[in-house]
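User: Structure with adenosine-5'-diphosphate, tokens only please.
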Amino acid sequence: MIELEKLTKRYAGPSGSVEALRDVSLSVAPGEIFGVIGRSGAGKSTLIRCINLLERPTAGRVRVAGRDLTALSAAELRAARREIGMIFQHFNLLSSRDVFGNVALPLELRGESRAAIRDKVMPLLDLVGLSDRADRYPSQLSGGQKQRVGIARALATDPKVLLCDEATSALDPETTDQILELIRDIRDRLNLTVVLITHEMAVVKEIADRVAVMERGSVIEHGATYDVFTRPQHATTRSFVADLIGFNLPPALEKRLAAARLEGNSRLWRLLFTGPHADDPVIAELSRNLGLDLAILHGRIDEIQGRPFGVMVVQARGDDARLAAAKSYLASRKIQVEELNDVVTIDRAAV
Ligand code: ADP
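Assistant:
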């Protein structure tokens, strides 16, 4: 549905040009929810604005629904943009128009009749749960309701693609969840393709099928959300996902471990549970069948895209043979084992 090919974008700045996008290539399949995550200044807004050509790339090609937008005339581009709806962090509603009037605006601009507009707007307000608020003004609405108006307005021209520019960043966590749920619901009902940019990994985890991680204008990593969360390749990605998946040790525990002297027959392991054996009773098997003493120091079990995922930090005590047998048992269950003893030793040396 969306193909970005070798996009580069340079802005002229006071001290020379800024390269906001460097050779970015991505493709998004129909019906997919695609997340783009990165810190402030990474190039996310520039990227999403290139998809509807609000920004024209300096080089590269943008194809939406098979059409090369970079090759269209101004009039053709206006028509093509109707297939691409967009919602914004600060909603961008007209304060002088009520809810109905805001959603009707793109249809008025297209010259639709009053009857046609009514027939289109009312079901959309129903879809976003605002049919009883049609005559309210933006100042009378909560943030979540304003974003619902934004979504209804974006859908008024029956787009194939919905672009979400930090759409939940101004909302509290509960409202964020409701809006994400609505976006997912709309995707399912209308088979929309959704691209969302965010600086919040929690948003990606909640809703994105696939994700691209951006840094300094480049995509440094992309893939299925589950894979990127459970096997982050790049240090930046690792730091994005660490807290959310319980990868980091709580600071107090880390201090305690750094201060403690681990005995020779005691190992500190971080276990990553993914894949088909994530639900297996491995801890019980390790202690019962392999005779290891296990202390669970930290852990989190969660779900990404409906698939289980867990992180656990354990202190395992046993002789060398038992520890080695435990490691091969874990490997047979496809559970990754990371030795933290070395990390803790290094930390201690640094202190
Ligand atoms: P993000 O959305 O990830 O915060 P942006 O796409 O807004 O990143 O910005 C990427 C880089 O491009 C930043 O260095 C930013 O300062 C620069 N930039 C963005 N828009 C403009 C502009 N209109 N003119 C000059 N520089 C810009």
